Amino acid sequence: MDLEPIRAKIDELDRELVDIINRRLALAQEIGQIKRVTDGEVYVPEREDAVFRKVFASNKGPVNNEALRAIYRELMSAGIALEKPLSIAYLGPEASNTHAAAMKKFGVSLDYHAMASVADSFAAVEKGEADYAVIPIENSTEGSVREALDCFVESDLKVVAQLYTEISHALISNEPLEKITTVYSKDQALAQCRYWLQRHLPQARLVEASSTSRAVQIAAQESGAAAVAGELAAQFYGVPVVARAIQDKADNTTRFFILGRKPTKPIGGGKDVSSFLISLGDGASDRPGGLLKMLMPLAERGINLSKIESRPSKMRPWDYYFFIDVSGHHDEPEMQAALAELRKFCPLVKWLGSYPAVRRESD
């Protein structure tokens, strides 16, 4: 059972791989030079989606698509960095769940900047301080991130991509479980672990922090304190993990939006999703059939509604905005016809963005 001949073949393949990777990145560098002349976008979500689909279609194993995605993610990250250094804003501090999602989406080769709030992430892109922002938009257990929805009301940024990632929470503290008196975390993270905390720490105070990473920073300094956060944050800030996987749902998943200043182009073939913000006007949502009237222009054209959520407009009592996700791209003829009809009786029909419809990293 001599391993050396097999290892020699692997070494030869590694040399070939390094050469192929460098040739691929050299071509990406050429594309970057052309884009600099034509003022083209460096990160193109629809092109990224097409590359992944082609790679998965040609995969004959034994490697699975999720592993291939991770490999190609870093290839693309290195390619983008050669084209133009991109700056990515995210809800920080470092090692937050949003930071992990941003790295999963863009790879390790780009520049990342931690923001104190979701609103700051929006502002960083709006002011040109960052090229893109990664924000949490909803969770499978606790629903939408209200701050993120409210930011869309005033912002002109566009959603250019999305990412779904499983979130596993840990209890992180310098103290043993019986000595923990206060637990810090983001409101959504605390809610996702509500029942575990009630069973194991019924007397502890639950205190909201600006992010899961900030919660770990506090727990590192405060006697009797713990944080709910990902294990990455525990490793990054050097605080022990007291308990793992404390989320109430095993398949706890968070959806993230990637925000940019320019919209994406259509992919077509049912592979696009669009998000809109719609207002029915003063008191219209209280009138019988008002909401149905809003949905009919979409239903009549076969446009599938995948999500609808209301938020107070904050303009007047009991007035609401509706956030909706629908199948298809903003620029498609059927969508344009539906929007034109909506604008006849809706005072606000705001396009938030269209983006690839991928739902899981293995899709």
UniProtKB/TrEMBL annotation:
Occurrences of domain Prephenate dehydratase (ranges):
87-261
Under what name is this protein listed? Bifunctional chorismate mutase/prephenate dehydratase
Supply the PANTHER family for this chain: PREPHENATE DEHYDRATASE P PROTEIN, PREPHENATE DEHYDRATASE-RELATED
Molecular function per GO: chorismate mutase activity; prephenate dehydratase activity
Q: Where along the sequence does the record put site: Essential for prephenate dehydratase activity?
A: 254
Q: Which Pfam families match?
A: ACT (PF01842), CM_2 (PF01817), PDT (PF00800)
What NCBIfam families does the entry give?
Answer: CM_P2, PRK11898.1
Function per UniProt: Catalyzes the Claisen rearrangement of chorismate to prephenate and the decarboxylation/dehydration of prephenate to phenylpyruvate.
E.C. number: 4.2.1.51, 5.4.99.5
- What is one process in the GO biological process aspect for this record? L-phenylalanine biosynthetic process
Which UniProt keywords are given for this protein, alphabetically ordered?
A: Amino-acid biosynthesis, Aromatic amino acid biosynthesis, Cytoplasm, Isomerase, Lyase, Multifunctional enzyme, Phenylalanine biosynthesis
| Residue span, ACT domain | 279-356
Q: Which organism is it from?
A: Cephaloticoccus capnophilus
